[in-house]
Amino acid sequence: xxxxxxxLDRPEFDADREDVLARSRAAGVTDLLVPAIGPDGWExxxxxxxxTPGVHFGLGIHPQLLPELDPRDDDRxxxxxxxxxxxxxAVAVGECGLDAATAERGAGPFPVPMERQVAVLRGxxxxxxxxxxxxxxxxxxxxPTLLALLEGESLPAGGVMHSYxxxxxxxxxYAAAGLWFSFAGPVTYExxxxxLEAARAVPRDRLLVETDAPDQTPRPHEGRNEPAFLRETxxxxxGALGMSVGELDGLTTANARRLFGASVGP
Length: 266
Description:
- The chain is of the alpha/beta class.
- It has one domain: Metal-dependent hydrolases (TIM Barrel).
- 42% of the residues lie in helices and 14% in strands.
- It contains 10 helices and 8 strands.
- An 8-stranded parallel beta sheet has the order 1-2-3-4-5-6-7-8.
- Helix 8 links the parallel strand 7 and strand 8.
- Helix 3 (74-86) packs parallel to helix 5 and helix 9 (230-241) crosses helix 10 (245-260).
- The radius of gyration is 17 Å and the shape is globular.
- It starts with a strand and ends in a 6-residue tail after the last helix.
């Protein structure tokens, strides 16, 4: 199995990261894509991934991190991101995107209106084109704004709607923009009607699965999520699509390897 979105570099894993990796491998998770969320994490994550078989990395600036970053430094951060991507090894740009809750909340020393988030995201999309990499997109309660932005942007290498939260009706326009769809722990929840309807609308060759660990823990687990729990998410998704877990594993793993390129091949 291929966990296409897992924050294994987060402090929640500092005490037992190697054990977490061992459990994921024992559970059949052969590949993990870890997206950095901010500049301080880019180099440590790249070094960790290069030294760890089966771990791949993306580089970006998460919209929820922007309240901690001075907006006067946004352009410089994107220049630094360009340089980090230029050093090679990354299989994606991101995690990046739009987050309405962050815009509304105003937590942190610096404001993050949607206009600022859109500008930073445009910078990420330009870098994805420059480096011919797919983009990993976070979108929380901002689908109209994101779709409007994507109408004027091209994504030659495609990208992923990570932990897709949109409706089934939005699958078609996002797919037309070149995006794929990854599903996480919410597909296991008791009232998981919306994500499962969306999953049924996704073309099979655009379907991916993830944990988003340490967040979005699938049922029946509680507490910290980890990559070994990918099987529970895969089982719920497979059941909704009328597939076996093995069939879903084969499909989503092949999709991930096709999207993220030869560097994540078997």
